[in-house]
Design goal:
single chain, mainly alpha, 0% strand
């Protein structure tokens, strides 16, 4: 086999579309497609048809998301606890060997980290509303649903974060059972329903993971 034939899979094809990315990913892998669609669009900015894909272009998007996670975790730490906690969390994120390793991989993990931080930040922002029996802002409710849905479209493991958040909300719900039909809770129910629908669309794909050769080792 000639060298150019071996390198053919590494050549950039400008004719491929995000739909092609989704089709190949769902048929050959077990990951949701959002990050890989974004990475495909990112490649389009730095690649020309027929040339070998750039290692720099392939890894840089993940690295950018990894860098963005540093101020993001600072914001979460500051909102949830204190500015010092935010600074300490940001320092740990910046020097984490595993975090640095993931940021160098052309994979969806650093984007998933951003969605996790964003989802937990929304949860922290909602807690004062629950404590004071106030209706959460419509923009916050919509933002939370969008973040959760995009997070699931990036990595299915975000469901663990959603489950943890559900336990927190459930604790407030049990404490406030006498008011569970008040307007302050109806918007929480809408957020829960929107998040559930955002997860439900991936159920057929998740159902096929058990029969995927990539997960036989589990």
């Amino acid at each position: 086999m000639r060298l150019n034939q071996l390198l053919l899979p590494l050549q950039f094809e400008s004719t491929s579309t995000p739909t092609d990315v989704i089709h190949h990913l769902l048929s050959e892998s077990n990951h949701p497609p959002l990050y890989f669609v974004l990475n495909h669009l990112w490649f389009n900015l730095f690649s020309t048809d027929g040339e070998l894909v750039s290692l720099w272009a392939g890894r840089s998007l993940s690295a950018i998301f990894g860098v963005a996670a540093i101020p993001a975790i600072f914001g979460l730490g500051w909102l949830a606890f204190s500015p010092f906690t935010g600074q300490f969390a940001a320092a740990l994120m910046a020097i984490s060997p595993y975090g640095i390793y993931l940021a160098q991989e052309s994979h969806h993990y650093t984007l998933t980290i951003l969605w996790i931080i964003a989802s937990v930040t929304c949860l922290i922002a909602v807690i004062p509303y629950l404590q004071k029996d106030r209706i959460i802002a419509i923009w916050l409710a919509c933002l939370w649903v969008i973040i959760n849905s995009l997070g699931i479209a990036t990595h299915y493991f975000l469901a663990l974060v959603l489950a943890a958040g559900g336990l927190v909300i459930g604790g407030f719900w049990l404490r406030d059972m006498q008011n569970r039909f008040q307007p302050s809770w109806w918007r929480i129910y809408v957020v829960s329903l929107g998040t559930f629908i955002g997860c439900l669309v991936w159920l057929p794909v998740v159902g096929g993971i058990a029969n995927n050769q990539l997960t036989d080792w589990i």
